[in-house]
Design brief:
The chain is mainly α. It has two domains: 211 residues, Cation efflux protein transmembrane domain (Alpha-lytic protease prodomain-like, Up-down Bundle); 93 residues, Cation efflux protein, cytoplasmic domain (Alpha-Beta Plaits, 2-Layer Sandwich). Helices cover 65% and strands 9% of the residues. It contains ten helices and three strands; from the N terminus they run αααααααααββαβ. The protein has a three-stranded mixed sheet with strand order 1-2-3, covered by helices on one side. Helix 10 links the parallel strand 2 and strand 3. Helix 2 runs antiparallel to helix 4, helix 3 packs antiparallel against helix 7 and helix 5 packs antiparallel against helix 8. The longest helix is centred in the first third of the chain and has 40 residues. The chain is elongated and about 85 Å long. The N terminus is likely disordered. Its main location: membrane.
Length: 334
């Protein structure tokens, strides 16, 4: 792998020009990695969309044969869940667009907006499940063709759980909180399908109230999943990162030759990639070119050591001379 910013350059003007923009690793490598993450996300959406549509179509056939209203609701829910791939697909597509003078960091945060839509859908799922459970508790309904309904519940659970695992796994690997939230949403639908299965079993044992009681329990489970998904998206919207990443970055910077101290370290997610802003201290006896080389090496090591970090802006402060405040003009602005 080649690096366009090695510690020593052959042309001084290029060094000075580079000081005016963030130090950055191989642009082609970063772009390829970001596009590959988006491509994986799109593949997940396509495969999970197909899996959920097949699941819902199988359930629809059994609905036609059994006339189960409960199963009809679960089937419609699965169709709706398949359609949550749409806002995510739009977000991934937008994330591939180049940065502009208005959107200087690109369009990666569109994933967070998609995550809000998904959390809203999970909340709606919980509300719908609670409504149906209370309605059936007040006016119990008989379930016909219990064997077929139970089979459809198993199909619904299996399909949703497979999709949930797939979305959550890839979402965490590429750093997409929205994809993880969508996986959690699929898991809630699997719980809803289980409710159909358990209610059919209760009806077969002569306990028709099993259907609404299980429905209420599933609503509680969906609320827990909603909490996790909402927390995931909230953290992204508030630019939260794992504190362990900050510690790792500080340790990485401390080990860079020429770094005398490490100041503020900030990171934020933009889509499923990280950007960082760090302050380091270098010897005041270094030349501008030497200090620049230390900053470039600091960013170089950060990009290699921090997962999914694509760029870092490294600010180097001199450590002296004694009793000199290099930031005094900024004191009134801080």
């Amino acid at each position: 792998m080649t690096h366009p910013n090695p510690p020593h350059h052959s042309h001084a003007p290029s060094k000075l020009g580079h000081l005016l923009k963030p130090h950055s690793h191989d642009t082609a490598d970063k772009t390829d990695a970001a596009l590959e993450s988006s491509s994986r996300g799109m593949r997940v959406l396509a495969v999970s969309f197909a899996a959920l549509m097949i699941t819902a179509l199988i359930q629809a056939v059994i609905v036609a044969l059994s006339g189960s209203v409960a199963l009809l609701g679960d089937t419609l829910h699965n169709f709706a869940d398949a359609l949550t791939a749409v806002p995510l697909a739009i977000a991934f597509s937008l994330g591939r667009r180049a940065a502009t003078r208005r959107f200087t960091y690109g369009y990666g945060r569109a994933e967070d907006l998609a995550g809000i839509v998904i959390v809203t859908l999970i909340a709606a799922s919980a509300a719908l499940a609670a409504y149906e459970a209370i309605k059936r508790l007040i006016t119990p309904e008989d379930i016909q063709a219990l064997g077929l309904v139970a089979a459809a519940g198993v199909v619904g659970f299996a399909g949703n759980e497979w999709v949930a695992r797939y979305r959550i796994k890839v979402g965490r690997e590429i750093g997409s909180a929205a994809l993880v939230a969508d996986g959690l949403h699929a898991r809630t639908d699997g719980y809803t399908s289980l409710a159909v299965l358990l209610s059919a079993g209760g009806a077969a044992l002569g306990f028709p109230l099993a259907d609404p009681i299980v429905g209420l329990l599933i609503t509680v489970a969906i609320c827990f999943v909603l909490r996790d998904a909402a927390r995931e998206i909230y953290h992204r919207l508030m630019d939260a990162v794992d504190p362990a990443l900050i510690t790792q970055a500080e340790q990485t910077l401390t080990a860079v030759p020429g770094v005398e101290g490490v100041g503020a370290v900030r990171m934020r997610w933009i889509g499923h990639t990280l950007r960082a802003e760090v302050d380091i201290t270098v010897s005041h006896e270094l030349t501008l070119i030497e200090a620049h080389a230390v900053a470039v090496e600091a960013e170089h090591r950060l990009i290699h050591e921090i997962p999914r970090l694509r760029a870092a802006t490294v600010h180097a402060d001199p450590d002296g001379p004694p009793d000199t405040d290099h930031h005094s003009p900024l004191q009134t602005h801080r």
